[in-house]
Amino acid sequence: MSNLSYHQPKVELKPTRLLARTIYAHHSYVSSVAFFGSQCDRLLTGSYDETAKLWDLKTGLALQKFQGHTDGITFVMPGPDGRVLTASEDRTLRVWDVDTGECLRVIRSHSGAVTSLCLAGPDRIVTGSSDRKLRVFDVAGHLHGETELDSEITAVASPPLPPPPRLRPHRGGGGGG
Asked: How would you classify the pairing of strands 103-108 and 114-119?
């Protein structure tokens, strides 16, 4: 068992009753953490200092820094194809290249803070927001659906969603006659 504490600008990994490592991760509160990689040997952190970072858990060293949000990061998670996804109070969802730290896509997704996100299959992202909307996007940023709830959304979870229907091209042809 392990215990994870992240209510300060540091992240502490504690196997039961024993502190394994303290990572001084950010200049403000750490708002979200997620294990990264098939071996769970790396850790993603997101902070109200507007950055996300990827850490090597064995060495405690930062491997990558993701910056570009203009307000605090509320949620981080591994994305499809080894990418990194971040949600922010700046009302955006961002997709990052883990190797370069480059922002590949900015999805301006809500009129309020994006508070949570999850993957719903290999190419679908579900977001929740303080604007009370739950939205489904593909990784290219296209909106595939939304619903509005009675209160702010603070967490989302979804089973894999079926792929969107493919439209068949209209093949012309004569009209009635």
From this structure: unpaired
CA angle 120/123/127 to nearest 5° reads 50
Nearest to 51 by CA among 23, 29, 81: 29
Kindly indicate whether the domain formed by 2-148 is annotated with CATH number 3.30.420.40: no
Domain parsing of the chain, residue ranges:
2-148
Confidence (pTM): 0.80
Task: Yes or no: say if 83 and 64 are a contact pair by the CB < 8 Å rule.
Answer: no
SS3 56: strand
Please classify residue 39 by burial: count the beta carbons closer than 10 Å to its beta carbon, then call 0-12 exposed, 13-18 middle and 19+ buried: exposed
Q: Average of pLDDT values for 113-138?
A: 94
Whether 54 contacts 98, CB under 8 Å: yes
What SS3 state is found at 151? coil
Rounded to whole angstroms, how far apart are CA atoms 87 and 48?
11
Q: Which residue has the tokens 């858990």?
A: 57
Residue, of 73 and 59, whose pLDDT is higher: 73
